[in-house]
Amino acid sequence: MADYSPVVTLPRLRQVVLVAADLDTVADQVESHLDVSAPFRDEGVGHFGLRNAVYTVGDCFLEIVSPVRDDTAAGRYRERRGGDCGYMAMFELADEAATRERLASLGVRIVWDTTHDDIVDLHLHPRDVPPAIVALDITAPVGSWRWGGPAWMAAIPAHEAGGLVAMEVAAVDPAETAARWAAVLGTESGPDHRISLAGGEQQVSFVPATDRTQEGIVGATMSRPGTPGTAVVGGVRINRISIEGEA
C-alpha cells in the first residue's frame, strides 16, 4: 500500500457520519459498495450511547453509528429524519484560537469540547449550525486523525489514494445555510450555494429540501481505486468515483 499523503490545504471535510438502526447491515453495504473492510470500532462512542464502525477511504473516513440505548442524540436525530440518514460532518481546521474566536463572534455554542495532545474536537449546537451535526477538529500534526483509529493518532500512516470529494446537504433555505456553514468554517459560499474546501479539491453543496424533516446530509462522493458507481447506503446517496488514471 503506497503513501499518497498530499500537501494539505485547510479547511477540509475529513469524515462523514451516518446513523443507522442496524449497524451490521449498513456496514455490509458500505463494504460492498466501497470495497473496504476491517473498520475501526471506537469504544469511546459508548459515552454517547452508540456503537460504531469507521472506514478509511484514502485519508478520509466514513463512519456509521448506531444507538445501543434509548434517548441518544443520534437516535433522536434519526427519528426526526424518519429513518437511517446522514448525521454528522467533521471538518479539519488549522487554528484553534481563531476557530474559537470565530464561533464566539457568530454566537455558535459548543456542545462537546475535548482536547488531546493530537486533536481538539468541537461539536457545534445543531440549532446554531443546522441541519446536521457539525464538528470542527484541529489536528497535530495536520493530516493525522485520531477518530480513524490508533494508526492515525498523531500520525499519518501509509494509505491508499482517494478520499472525500464532495458532500450534499439538503436545506429549506440553501443560500442561508451555505452562508452559515461557510462563516463557521472561515470561508465563503458561492452563488450556487456551494462551499469550496481543501484548495478546491472538495465541494459541499446545499440543495433545496421540501420541509425540515428532509433537511440534512443526503449525499457524499468518494474517490477510490476500482469501479465507480452509486448506491444509497444508510439513507445517503454514496457516489464512488474512480481516481484519475484508475479504471
What structural class should be given to the helix and strand makeup? alpha/beta
| Shape annotation | globular
CATH superfamily membership: 2,3-Dihydroxybiphenyl 1,2-Dioxygenase, domain 1
Low-confidence stretches: none
Rounded Rg = 17 Å
In brief:
Helix content is about 20%, strand content about 40%. It has about 250 residues and is of the alpha/beta class.
Characterise this structure.
This protein has 247 residues and is of the alpha/beta class. It has one domain: 2,3-Dihydroxybiphenyl 1,2-Dioxygenase, domain 1, CATH 3.10.180. The protein is 18% helix and 38% strand. The protein is built from four helices and 13 strands. The strands form two sheets. Strands 2-3-1-4-7-6-5 form a seven-stranded mixed β-sheet. A hairpin with a 4-residue loop joins strand 9 and strand 10 (202-208). It starts with 11 loop residues before the first strand and ends in a 5-residue tail after the last strand. The relative contact order is 0.20. The mean pLDDT is 95.
